Amino acid sequence: KGVLGRNGITHLLGPVMLDFNVTRIECGFFHTVVITESRGVYAWGSNSKGQLGLTKDHASSILPVKILIEDVKAVSCGGYHNVAVTLSGDPFVWGSNKSGEIGMGKDKKIIYSPEPIEAVKNVIQASCSHYRSSLLTDEGIVYITGRCASVNGTSHQFSFRIMEDLYNKHICVVKMAIGQTHIFLLNAPQWSSALETIVSACSFDLEIKLPYLKTVLKTLPPKRINDLQTRALRYLHEKSKKESPFISADTSYIKFQIKGEEVTKIINLTNETDSRVYVSASVTGGDLIKSSKYSFVTSPHRFLLEKRSSGAVKISLRCYSSIQERLISILSFTVENDRSQKLKVSRLFLLCDVLPNRIQQQVELRSGPCPIDLLQVFASYVPKFIVAEYQHLVQSQRTVTMDVDAVQVPSTKKLLAAILFIDVSGFTALNERLAVFGSAGPEKVSKHLNTYFGQLINAVLQGGGDVLKFAGDALICLFGEAGPLPPFTNPAKYLEEITMKAIQCGVDIQKNLAEYDSQEGFTLTLHIGIGAGDIHAVHVGGVDGCCEFLVIGDPLLQLKTAVDNSKSGEVCISEPAYKIVGNRCVCEARGLDWVVKKIKAPPVPPKTLPVAPKLVPQLEAILRSYIQPGVQARLDSFQTRWLAELRQVTTLFVKLSSLVFQKGQPLQLESIHHVLCIMQRIIFRYEGMVRQFLVDDKGTVLIAVFGVPPYSHEDDTFRGLKAALEIHTELVSQNMKNSIGITTGGVFCGGVGNNQRQEYAVVGDTVNLSARLMGVADSQGVGLLCDEITYQSTKDRADLKFDTLDPVKVKGKQFAVAIFRPHSVNVELSKTTKLTGAGLTIIGREIELVSIRTHIEKLAKGGKGSVFVLEGGAGMGKTALVEFATYVAKINKIEYYIAHTSSTQRSPFFLWTQILRQIMDLAVEKRALQNPLSNTSFVSEMLRQHDSSIDAFLLKFSERLATSSSAAWASKGHWVREHLPLLNSLLPLNIPQTDFTLGLTNDRTRHSCLISLLLFILQCQVSKAPVILVVEDAQWADSVSLSLLRSVASEVRPLFLMITTRPPGTSQQNMGQYSEIEEIVQLPETETLRLEPLSSEEANSLVLRRITAGIENKESSRAPLASAGTALPDELLKTIEKAEGNPLFLVQLAYSLREFPGLELQTDRDGRIVVSFSGSEALKLPSSVESVIGSRLDQLLPSSQFVLKVASVLGIEFSKVELETIYPLRDEQIRGQMGTFLAELVQQEYLEEKAPGIFAFHSTVIREVAYSRLLFEQRQSLHYEAAVYYENLLLATTTPPNSPSTQLQTYPTTTSPPTPHSSYSSSFSSSSSSSTSSKQPLPPYLDWRECQMQLAYHWTKAVRDNPKSLPRHQLKALQYLMVCSESVTPEDASVLLQNGLEIVQMLPDDFPDKLKLMRELERKAVGALKPHASVTNVITRYVSRRTSPSRLPHKP
């Protein structure tokens, strides 16, 4: 019959290869069906019943016959029939229908070509036996037809019917196999349970349990929610004899990515019935109905769907405050049928997932699937265990898409494994040794760590292991399989083999990598411990989509002594590990552990080298959930090699001593997950980053960092301290003992490891100190400890106080360390400003001072009042002017209220909560006002103050309002009493609800009524006497508060409203807030002043006052005179110019100057101060200034930030051509966007375009902060590229006669002429060897001297402190320094030559004429070199301004 597909062959005794490429094979009685790689279907064999899809004229076919169906994903063969399923889920049947096996009715006995089954859709599997067929849909419903397939099982079924016993019991089937007399079904119990809950929720006849429904829906993938809900509604429709309305949606899951104040989604609803239905929407449960922060709006709200028709619904999420954490809510559509006699109602649910701004992925310049090279980078940031686990899941389920919801948290998997712990000894000493290099220290440490870790990682991977965690200066490695063990595997033998692999790997590492010479005076050595047994692979967290993976179990407990018992160069295994492999190793007992001396029976080598599985694009979302969002943003912008940078950060080490894993005790999975979620929510609310999470025998440890991209702020130290205090308080309230160490300082931020396995880490002495302080806090039982830098940065905050404790000696520090214990203070939100210093004279700002005084005095004399908006950037002096306003108010005896907004607190009406408390004269703690739901002591505190009941207090408050405005109260007294319960949302007053407030179900209506009530209260307050209302930092306020503020500005009189805000685009806030402020600015009664930088004279005067404050004249009792006539050195004046007239920067600069050794203050005979200053290059920017500018830079997208950092290497001014030439990323897509990046930077005032193609930094400070974030190695690399560019430019141009460049070619004699760099094979390299006639002049924005100065600068920067620099490059730097020294002043020439002398000292000792060069330079460098003098200052003075009129072409 041709069943073998071979002509003339009747039987085969052995296998024969067929020349087919197929993905699936199915066989019937006498035919075969295959699916090819292109998803085509072919068949051969007998066609007696039409099973080949041929007409009855064809009895059989030896050759494959194409079946006329496309895009087939599955096929199943019965005896004489077939069922195929397409990618779209449509089933097709052909062949015999004698017993109804293909469900085509009694009349059709044979179907000769494929026909669809219209009644069944969305099929995922088909299964056939001899005379029966079954179909499985994505809703988990099974359809069956054929012999004995009727309901009672005694007769034939001639059409596909639902297996009603499964359907009615809400059983969800995921796989099936049908036989001739039986059927087996694989049930998904979690889906079946969820289906029962969804059926109850969709039916109005049953009670809905919203919390449980929300929990159930959160555990399901989005498509599964849709499938189960459709099945539930169909079930209800059929159960009610098709009277219950039945609609479906194209999705049951909506993810809102918040980008502004309103986000809109469109969904399509379909009426699946033959009657009209009415649909209305409402929020029924979840996070969004718990507060008035957010609301859903549907358009249309109620609408009609005709029978079998569809309609689109717009769903808008409106946000009245910045979202700080993930919110999940349920939006329900109530569906009513159009039957006049009997009303039937059902519900359709949408799960709404609202993601805050901080967890949105910044994927730039990319659309479509993730490139495989980027996917490989992502995979290197997570353990191979996770990659293998989810790769197996994708392949086994053939999942087309997989998002972050596929990560089930909390979850655990138990498996056999061996743990290899590699501890690097000497790292702490290296850290302290390199700390003397200042900001370069952490970079040097990270370089050594990466070099050594890279070698260790390669050795572990080659040995068959996986690097799970980078635990500071240690590696935690796992040996074992992520997936299930192969069939018939002996667990004991398997554990023995993987333990031997770990031992062999450890021995090989100690043999080949036991020591690492740092070349810094320290040698790093290794201590290795190994444990083996059962471990738990745990996934926890998930707040904002950020998950943590860790391993917990007895093997890690075994390492507690094994690592300590391991001496340098040894491998020590635990007692349980020794019992597993003792007969295969020669070991020596040491304590409770065993030191491996020799391996007798090595592990069995693999038959083939392990090959990493090919990554599939579906893994992208999974991998992202284990990588910090800020790191993802940098990787997405192709900055893998340039991820590292130097930053000022605040580090938290949190230890929970009460949450430990003990041998023999059950895993506390829920507790670990709960604790991590608590800490994640607090850290993310303050916009920090969770660096690492570990659980071992010592407890649970979390590391958090504040100040890393993209969430750096000017107050990161304060944020870190507040987060630590909240974590400590929250954990203590749950009876969890914890200790926290907090430190601040410069660190290396970037990848640690190599391209095979790496993690984002922060490295530096301050990180180690944080861990030490955590230990000290634990031993002393004090809860929290911080270092001196953290204390100094936050000691002036009114809501913090510190206990100064005795200094302690910690590991890694030569001297005792000062420590402080922070506390939160219950600060009253009173009429005080948040900064001190009001007693200091305000310099400048005469116009603003006069205007404020005039406004207040007019109000005091009976004026109606006005609005005054003060606009200025960070540190421009807004708070000082607020202090002045309160001073004038006190003089004129005017009542005033002050409200502060904060970037960390944007809950609705927060601004008015403060004002209302001041009006009601309530002294409550700030925390209660910020989060009233979490504090129930407020009411008792209020009762204690008023010594009365709530009713009596409210009566007293009502009487106060009535006294303030009797006329208003007479007309609206009843209205106020009805509305007063609305104040419960601002203050926890627990005012009993009225019938009116109970009837307010719409959020917008409640907000509107609350605004009206607050307006009335404020108007009553000002009716008795005028009031001054001050709102500081309005740019942080929520939109609801600003909306009310606008109404107050236009309606409440007499009132002087003073608002301070930052200009648009200078803070991390939505433009919606600025639009509200802009409406206030446009009011006719508003005066707006923008604070400009102080003039040079004012800036000099401010600095002079600050640096001379407190100096006493030793010869007399008179205070020294710091008059305006006091002369300041030119170098100090240039240093002051860097602050660009910003008062905060100037004050901080003055404080730094007072501690700077290069500044000297003396008094002359008349008591006048004489100032001398030198060494400005060594004066660093104050950390507060760097934080303000740094927080602005981090608002940029990663690509724009990187452009700014690269440009900073070129100096204050640069050309686009120069920038494109040295830009290190060679990706053409990125480089092609350079013009766009520059335009964005100009628009946001980081740069300014001086002329076409010529750009300059908007301020020196911006350039210095951008430059300081580059690693020293990165700077050297970019300076090298810049030097090569200028050198090629010089060689490609015409040499003017008698120019210094002629000397350049002949001096010194030991150097060869500069040659173009190999990476620039364009016109530069060819022109250098061309004739003089083919050379071109320099660009108009460059001259010869500037080009040579640039070469001196960049070559010097490229080779200084760079041990890898080549002697020929060092000679280039020396050459240009000597050439440039001939055209500058003698003093500047001395500086250049002194730098040249230091470069000569870098040359090898055997270099010819080294001594001769040194003597010549010493002779020429006449005069003493100033301390800290640098080539940078000299070069900058002699580089011409590129945009001077003489340098640019004339404009028409």
Describe, in plain words, how this protein is organized in 3D.
The chain starts with 21 loop residues before the first strand and ends in a 14-residue tail after the last helix. α23 runs antiparallel to α24 (966-979), α32 (1183-1193) crosses α37 and α38 (1272-1291) packs antiparallel against α41. Helix content is 37%, strand content 24%. The strands form twelve sheets. Strands 24, 25, 26, 27, 28, 29, 30, 31 and 32 form a nine-stranded mixed beta sheet that branches. Residues 358-367, 828-840, 923-950, 1068-1072, 1112-1124, 1297-1333, 1424-1428 and 1441-1452 have low confidence and may be disordered. The longest helix is centred in the N-terminal third of the chain and has 23 residues, at 440-462. The relative contact order is 0.04. α27 links the parallel β43 and β44 (1055-1061). With 1452 residues, it is an alpha+beta fold.
Task: Compose a concise summary of this entry.
With 1452 residues, the protein is of the alpha+beta class.
Which secondary structure elements does this structure contain, and how are they paired or packed?
Layout (H helix, E strand, L loop, with lengths): L21 E6 L3 E6 L4 E6 L13 E8 L4 E6 L3 E6 L4 E6 L13 E7 L6 E6 L3 E6 L4 E5 L10 E6 L1 H5 L4 E6 L4 E5 L1 H14 L7 H9 L3 H18 L7 E3 L3 E5 L4 E10 L5 E10 L7 E6 L2 E4 L4 E10 L7 E11 L7 E11 L16 H9 L3 H14 L13 E15 L1 H8 L5 H23 L3 E6 L2 E6 L11 H22 L2 E3 L5 E19 L5 E7 H12 L5 E3 L1 H7 L3 E6 L2 E7 L20 H5 L4 H8 L8 E12 L12 H17 L3 E8 L2 E8 L9 H18 L4 E16 L4 E6 L1 H16 L3 E3 L1 H7 L5 E9 L8 E8 L21 H15 L4 E7 L6 H14 L3 E6 L9 H11 L5 H5 L6 H10 L3 H15 L1 H14 L15 H4 L4 H22 L2 E6 L6 H13 L3 E7 L9 H11 L4 E5 L5 H13 L21 H8 L5 H13 L3 E5 L5 E5 L9 H11 L4 H12 ...
Parallel strand pairs: 16-23, 28-30, 36-38, 41-44, 41-45, 42-43, 43-44
Antiparallel strand pairs: 1-2, 2-3, 3-4, 5-6, 6-7, 7-8, 9-10, 10-11, 11-12, 13-14, 15-17, 17-21, 18-20, 18-22, 19-21, 22-23, 24-26, 24-28, 25-26, 27-28, 28-29, 30-32, 31-32, 33-35, 33-36, 34-35, 36-37, 39-40, 46-47, 48-50, 49-50
Helix pairs in contact: 2-3, 2-4, 7-8, 8-9, 14-15, 18-19, 23-24, 23-26, 24-26, 26-27, 27-28, 29-31, 32-37, 33-36, 33-37, 38-41, 41-42, 41-45, 42-43, 43-44
